[in-house]
């Protein structure tokens, strides 16, 4: 099972918005609304930022939002802050055989 | 506050068995309805889900690794473990343990708590 496709890097200035895409297939992203996003600062534990495509866990700022269209899910971060600089990974349920697949990761740089 | 901590050898020889343990503190792995997972990240690559064990003891594995992986739990020590046999250099990665709380999130597939990871290098 191939990893979901994410851009290797994105960047933005403080206060701006950036969107990270996550493209899969009809067997994963396109077939289920079980997409999640994780923020990972190197050396630290990854953090769940979005689940069920659009929902935010308690404590995650509303600057983070998720969406999905067809086989592509997206994470949008508005009002960029320096602390948002991190790696971001998407994950999708992929059925009862494959179970689940991650994206390759996107490095967000805050300029 | 529940925390997860991975531990195990940082260096494993090719063809041998990689063994890691995840110690859960601040809560019991045998209470509630949780899935306890292993996930890895080879250097310069993305994350890969390895497998998981449910509170009941049932397991699920990534089909690509299923023939080599065993995940088990020791409730007396509040730990769960990963064994990966016949390792090669391709198994060199940072290994993470993580929790899924299906009651809180309504799905069996959201990793709401992670350890910081431990690097395992496969080399002679």
What tags apply to this protein structure?
heterodimer, A: 111 residues, mainly beta, six-stranded mixed β-sheet, three-stranded antiparallel β-sheet, 1 helix, globular, B: 124 residues, seven-stranded mixed β-sheet, four-stranded antiparallel β-sheet, 11 strands, 3% helix
Beta-strand level of the residues of chain A, as a percent range? 35-45%
- The succession of helices and strands of chain B, N to C, reads EEEEEEEEEHEE
Please tell me how large the radius of gyration of chain A is.
13 Å
What class do helices, strands and sheet pairing of chain B give? mainly beta
Mean pLDDT of chain A: 95
Biggest β-sheet of chain A, characterized? 6 strands, mixed
Multimer state: heterodimer
The averaged pLDDT of chain B comes out at: 94
Q: Biggest interface, and residues per chain?
A: A-B, 27 and 25 residues
Estimate percent helicity of chain B.
under 10%
Summing up helix and strand content along with how strands pair, one would put the structural category of chain A as mainly beta
Query: Tell me, what's the shape of chain A?
Result: globular
Q: How much is the radius of gyration of chain B in Å?
A: 14 Å
CA-to-CA gap between the ends of chain B? 39 Å
The number of helical elements of chain B comes to 1
The largest pleated sheet of chain B is described as: 7 strands, mixed
Strand percentage of chain B lies at: over 45%
Distance between the termini of chain A: 34 Å
- General shape of chain B: globular
DSSP E strands of chain B, number: 11
Poorly predicted regions of chain A are: none
């Amino acid at each position: 099972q191939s990893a979901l496709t994410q851009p290797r890097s994105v960047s933005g200035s403080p206060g701006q918005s950036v969107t990270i895409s996550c493209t899969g297939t009809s067997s994963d992203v396109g077939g289920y609304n079980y997409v999640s996003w994780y923020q990972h600062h190197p050396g630290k534990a990854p953090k769940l930022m979005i689940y069920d495509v659009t929902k935010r866990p308690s404590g995650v700022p509303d600057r983070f939002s998720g969406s999905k269209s067809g086989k592509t899910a997206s994470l949008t971060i508005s009002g960029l802050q320096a602390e948002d600089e991190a790696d971001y990974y998407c994950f999708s349920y992929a059925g009862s055989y494959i179970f689940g697949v991650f994206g390759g990761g996107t490095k967000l740089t805050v300029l | 506050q529940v925390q997860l901590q991975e531990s195990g050898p940082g260096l494993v020889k090719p063809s041998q068995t990689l063994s890691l343990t995840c110690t859960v503190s601040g809560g019991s792995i045998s209470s509630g309805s949780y899935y306890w997972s292993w996930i890895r990240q080879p250097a310069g690559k993305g994350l890969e889900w390895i497998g998981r064990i449910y509170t009941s003891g049932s397991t699920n594995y990534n089909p690509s690794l299923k023939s080599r992986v065993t995940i088990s739990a020791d409730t007396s020590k509040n730990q769960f473990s990963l064994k990966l046999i016949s390792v090669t250099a391709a198994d060199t990665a940072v290994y993470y343990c993580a929790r899924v709380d299906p009651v809180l999130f309504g799905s069996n597939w959201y990793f709401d708590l992670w350890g910081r990871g431990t690097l395992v290098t496969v080399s002679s």
